[in-house]
């Protein structure tokens, strides 16, 4: 038996869910397939990350009808500070300060725990009549025909649609099956993630400490004395730390965290994510397009990955809406190439920026440190440079898709 629909989205992660809502809004019938048990993805231990969401991602969430559920959990970032120090330095001088005065429209970004974002998106998907969720089901095959693609599930059911969207993450099965190549490398770094309670309030300040091995980010959560940590370590050190007892782990954590927020206590588990750069060379194959981490994985040092994935989703909605208005078959490679032309360059630019920053800072050479600190000093003293970086943080550069353009209501 074949189940016919308009678009099949493989992967019900944050990008797949947002894509489904956007496509449903333009009147398409959407099927999402995910291998995970949906309720398990909502458990606090499933994903410990909190993401920095740009202002334009917030606009998209408003347009998709999920921001009303998210606002109560979202911590506006009032200020970003950047330091560049050795691990043992008694004081970490602040080299860069971005605050309200530097932004066009404030705040440029919000911190949101991924579990709340997932919950809100799933809630909205459940309420949307023209979306059907197939889970837990693995996609085990896809075949592209002249007018339709067929997707086979692990229970032998077959879905068919003019277009399949691969939102199946960094190890995308569909990307590999379609023979779409990627370029990139492993950083030999892991991002250790944990939630920290501290004595003094964070006041909405996000901190990026560039330590020689990589960035150590302290990111403010909605509770005034709670922050999320992304602690970059060499992979072997991270493996060792993850298997260490609580005492040793917390000792190493405190050495890096410092005491500027008073006493600290780790709450909940620790997670470790391998970091890599991975860029698909092409985003399009017959009856298939890639979005989110299936298309691009970047270093998390500037909190861009999800924001880029959401922009993919919003751009895809625009491109498909245009094809529908012209009465075209939206699953053709020609239409897919319009989407690719829009998104590939933007994602590539962001990946290169992250790459340059990571290389520049994950290095303790004294000469290089002097040069980069001089560069930070120049940015700190230039209102124009600061405005540029705040616009980037807000995701307000480049050609914005419609879902990211509507005005913010509050
Ligand atoms: C430490 C860390 C911190 C980060 N911080 C930020 C941040 O602050 N801001 C930001 O913007 N980004 C951040 N990111 C990046 C962000 O988390 C990712 O870019 C984003 O989660 C990718 O979402 P996705 O939906 O594309 O992929 P995933 O979340 O990987 O979703 C893929 C889905 O596909 C499903 N799937 C896979 N294969 C199949 C199959 N064959 N059949 C059915 N289903 C399948 C999986 O079950 C999964 O649900 C961070 C990343 C890391 C590692």
In words, what does this structure look like?
The chain has about 400 residues and is of the alpha/beta class. The chain has two domains: about 230 residues, FAD/NAD(P)-binding domain; about 130 residues, 2-Layer Sandwich (D-Amino Acid Oxidase, Chain A, domain 2). It contains twelve helices and 21 strands. The protein has an eight-stranded mixed sheet with strand order 7-6-15-16-17-14-18-21. A six-stranded mixed sheet has the order 9-3-2-13-20-19. It has a four-stranded mixed sheet with strand order 1-12-11-10. A hairpin with a 2-residue loop joins strand 19 and strand 20. Helix 1 packs parallel to helix 5. It is globular. The N and C termini lie far apart (about 50 Å). Flavin-adenine dinucleotide (FAD) binds next to helix 1, strand 4, strand 14 and helix 9. The site of flavin-adenine dinucleotide has 33 residues, from helix 1, strand 4, strand 14 and helix 9.
Mean pLDDT: 90
Overall body shape: globular
Low-confidence stretches: none
Question: Structural class, from helix and strand content?
Answer: alpha/beta
Q: CATH H level of the largest domain: which superfamily?
A: FAD/NAD(P)-binding domain
In which order are the strands of the major sheet placed? 7-6-15-16-17-14-18-21
CATH architecture of the largest domain: 3-Layer(bba) Sandwich
Q: Compute the gyration radius: what is it?
A: 21 Å
Query: How many helices in DSSP terms?
Result: 12
Bound molecules: flavin-adenine dinucleotide
From the 3D structure, determine the CATH topology of the largest domain: FAD/NAD(P)-binding domain
- What is the helix content? 25-40%
* Main β-sheet description: 8 strands, mixed
Question: Which CATH class of the largest domain applies here?
Answer: Alpha Beta
Head-to-tail CA distance between termini? 48 Å
């Amino acid at each position: 038996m074949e189940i016919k629909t308009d678009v099949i989205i493989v992967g019900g992660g944050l990008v797949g869910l947002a894509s489904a809502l956007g496509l449903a809004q333009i009147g398409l019938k959407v099927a999402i397939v995910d291998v995970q048990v949906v309720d398990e993805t909502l458990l606090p231990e499933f994903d410990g990350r909190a993401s920095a969401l740009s202002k334009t991602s917030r606009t998209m969430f408003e347009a998709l009808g999920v921001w009303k559920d998210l606002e109560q959990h979202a911590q506006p970032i009032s200020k970003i500070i950047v330091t560049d120090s050795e691990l043992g330095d008694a004081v970490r001088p602040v080299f860069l300060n971005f605050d309200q005065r530097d932004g066009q429209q404030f705040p440029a970004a919000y911190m949101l725990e991924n579990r709340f974002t997932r919950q809100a998106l799933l809630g909205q998907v459940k309420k949307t009549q023209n979306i059907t969720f197939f889970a837990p089901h693995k996609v085990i095959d896809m075949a592209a025909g002249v007018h339709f693609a067929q997707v086979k599930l692990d229970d032998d059911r077959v879905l068919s649609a003019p277009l399949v969207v691969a939102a199946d993450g960094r190890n995308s099965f569909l990307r590999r099956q379609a023979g779409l190549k990627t370029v990139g490398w492993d950083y030999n770094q892991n991002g250790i993630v944990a939630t920290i309670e501290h004595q003094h309030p964070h006041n909405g300040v996000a901190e990026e400490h560039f330590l020689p091995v990589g960035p150590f980010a302290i990111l403010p959560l909605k509770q005034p004395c709670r922050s999320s940590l992304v602690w970059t370590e060499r992979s072997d050190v991270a493996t060792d730390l993850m298997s260490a007892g609580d005492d040793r782990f917390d000792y190493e954590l405190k050495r890096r965290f410092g005491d500027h927020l008073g006493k600290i206590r780790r709450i909940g588990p620790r997670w470790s994510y391998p970091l890599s750069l991975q860029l698909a060379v092409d985003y399009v194959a017959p009856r298939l397009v890639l979005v989110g981490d299936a298309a691009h994985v970047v270093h998390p040092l500037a909190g861009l990955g999800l924001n880029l994935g959401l922009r993919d989703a919003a751009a895809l909605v625009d491109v498909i809406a245009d094809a529908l208005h012209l009465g075209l078959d939206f699953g053709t490679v020609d239409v897919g190439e319009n989407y690719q032309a829009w998104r590939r360059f933007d994602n590539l630019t962001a990946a290169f920026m992250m790459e340059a920053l990571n290389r520049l800072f994950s290095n303790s050479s004294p000469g290089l440190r002097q040069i980069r600190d001089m560069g930070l000093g120049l940015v700190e003293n230039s209102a124009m440079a600061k405005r540029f970086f705040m616009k980037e943080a807000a995701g307000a550069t480049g050609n914005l898709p419609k879902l990211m353009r509507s005005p913010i209501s509050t």
